[in-house]
From TrEMBL:
UniProt KW keywords: Cell membrane, G-protein coupled receptor, Membrane, Olfaction, Receptor, Sensory transduction, Transducer, Transmembrane, Transmembrane helix
Family, similarity comment: Belongs to the G-protein coupled receptor 1 family.
Protein name: Olfactory receptor
Chain segments annotated as transmembrane: 35-60, 72-99, 111-132, 144-162, 217-238, 250-273, 285-304
InterPro entries in the record: GPCR_Rhodpsn, GPCR_Rhodpsn_7TM, Olfact_rcpt, OR51/52/56-like
Cellular component GO terms, alphabetical: plasma membrane
Role description: Odorant receptor.
One GO MF term: G protein-coupled receptor activity
Organism: Crocodylus porosus (Saltwater crocodile)
Residue intervals of the G-protein coupled receptors family 1 profile domain: 53-304
């Protein structure tokens, strides 16, 4: 019934192409509407794990003085970004799956799109900052506290925040200037840029080109800087005489490499499938985009909690306290 009404609404609007829309409708996962309730179960589970894991990680870093180091401060920034990214889409998706709450105003849609993409850029930048932190700690350990002082860490955080906002503000303003008059139905579970732009009237070539350029710039430059940092780290580690020192270094960096892989691999797959995967079913494209925003925030605190002894010990202490 809900899908039928959405299609009727889209038909009515498409027959009046000069009408400016103030409300859009999100389909959810196109083609899998009958399975929405079942799909919502793992999505809800992932969101709950994200909330509990990231909030616990923030609490541990805040309450443990020994963790007030550059590496953990960057990790706390990453945790906040993960919380914002997942919260910007998951409650709305669950509303679609459970209550058929498909309607969303144009302004709310643009705000959601802005937060999703801006904070994705911020997360990419923070991964670069964390790679730089590991490079300084391993290659210049005696100068670590001198280079990464508190003002420098704050400045890096503000630069990453500013970059994300600055890159996404023009795109959002461009889209806000369009008239949405072709169809009120977005074939997606959240307001993803390429899905929204399909509803706009007029020439959208500049918006599409700008989006691809930003994605290529952020992904290309950031991944290059990360690769450079870890190339220098690898060179330094292989030069260590102690096998135990090499093992500890690889273990510390391994968690960061896992987080980087979880972020960039699904992100790149989602981006290129969305733009060039015309032969791939729509529900696969939407699921890839959803998982890109749900999986990294869920696994990041788990990976860091397992790999970093200080965090692991504090969490164990927290869990055991009520029973002691």
């Amino acid at each position: 019934l809900t899908l039928f009404s959405l299609r009727n609404w889209g038909t009515v609007v498409s027959n009046h192409t000069n009408i400016t829309l103030s409300e859009l409708h999100l389909v959810g996962i196109p083609g899998l509407e009958a399975l929405h309730v079942w799909i919502s179960i793992p999505f809800c589970f992932m969101y709950l794990v994200t909330l509990v894991g990231n909030c616990t990680l923030l609490w541990v870093i805040k309450t443990e003085p020994s963790l007030h180091l550059p590496m953990y401060l960057f990790l706390s920034m990453l945790t906040l970004v993960d919380l914002v990214m997942s919260t910007s889409i998951t409650p709305n998706m669950l509303g679609i799956f459970w209550f058929h709450s498909t309607a969303i105003s144009v302004d709310a849609c643009l705000v959601q799109m802005y937060f999703v993409h801006a904070f994705s850029v911020m997360e990419s930048g923070l991964l670069v900052a964390m790679a730089f932190d590991r490079y300084v700690a391993i290659c210049h350990p005696l100068r670590y506290r001198v280079i990464l002082t508190s003002p420098v860490i704050v400045a890096i955080g503000l630069v990453m925040l500013g970059r994300g906002l600055a890159l996404m503000t023009p795109l959002t303003c461009i889209i806000r200037g369009f008239t949405f008059c072709q169809d009120a139905v977005i074939s997606h579970s959240y307001c993803e840029h390429m899905a929204v732009i399909k509803l706009a009237c007029g020439d959208t070539a500049f918006s599409t080109t700008y989006s691809i350029s930003v994605s290529t710039y952020v992904g290309g430059v950031d991944s290059l800087l990360i690769a450079l940092s870890y190339g220098l780290i690898l060179k330094a580690v292989l030069g260590l005489s102690s096998a135990e020192a090499r093992r500890k270094t690889f273990s510390t960096c391994g968690s960061h490499v896992c987080v980087i892989s979880l972020f960039y691999i699904p992100g790149l797959l989602s981006m290129y499938i969305e733009r060039y995967g015309q032969d791939i079913p729509p529900h696969v494209q939407v699921l890839m985009a959803d998982l890109y925003l749900l999986i990294p925030p869920m696994f990041n605190p788990i990976i860091y909690g397992m790999k970093m002894k200080q965090i692991r010990d504090k969490v164990v202490q927290l869990c055991c306290r009520p029973w002691s």
